[in-house]
Structures are given as C-alpha cells and as structure tokens.
Design brief:
The protein has three helices and no strands. It is an all-alpha fold. Helix 1 packs antiparallel against helix 2, helix 1 packs across helix 3 and helix 2 crosses helix 3. The protein is globular and about 45 Å long. The chain starts with 7 loop residues before the first helix and ends with a helix. This is Sigma factor. GO terms for molecular function: DNA-binding transcription factor activity. InterPro entries: RNA_pol_sigma70_r2, RNA_pol_sigma_r2.
C-alpha cells in the first residue's frame, strides 16, 4: 500500500531541524552532522516508494539517520585502526 504523506520538497522544512539536532548530539561536529542529514534525506528520497506509513515520516527519517550515524562511526573506526 502506498502511503501519501508530505513531499520530498517539504522534508527539509519539516524534519531538518530535528534530524540535525539528533545527529549533532551524537557526532558533536556541526559539519559532519549536516552531511549526515543530507545523506539521510537523499536515502529517504531513494526509498520513498518503500515507505508504507507504518510510522510517522519523522520516525522513519530518524531511523534512516541512525543507520547513517552507525556507518559514519564504523568508517571512522576503520580509518583510525
């Protein structure tokens, strides 16, 4: 079932601040936090057709961001090893 929510053009206005604050609280670097939000929004755009509406769009986008943050720390730990 296709869910009808906001448009991708609205996501930054709707969820940008919460995504940025969530990311910044975890990575403590404003530039990296901003990059992670951009990656999250791009990933959400690519997977929008799979979004079934079982959670709010905000919860869905934060879920994507969590994986982006995990990937960031994985790459950072490999680079320092």
């Amino acid at each position: 079932m296709k869910h009808k929510g906001s448009t991708p053009e609205q996501w930054l206005d709707l969820y940008g601040d919460i995504l940025y604050r969530f990311s910044l609280a975890r990575v403590s670097d404003p530039d990296i936090a901003e990059d992670l939000v951009q990656e999250t929004l791009l990933a959400a755009l690519k997977t929008k057709v799979d979004y079934a509406g079982k959670s709010s769009e905000q919860t869905w986008s934060i879920g994507i961001l969590k994986y982006k943050i995990i990937d960031y720390f994985r790459k950072a730990s490999r680079a320092s090893a």
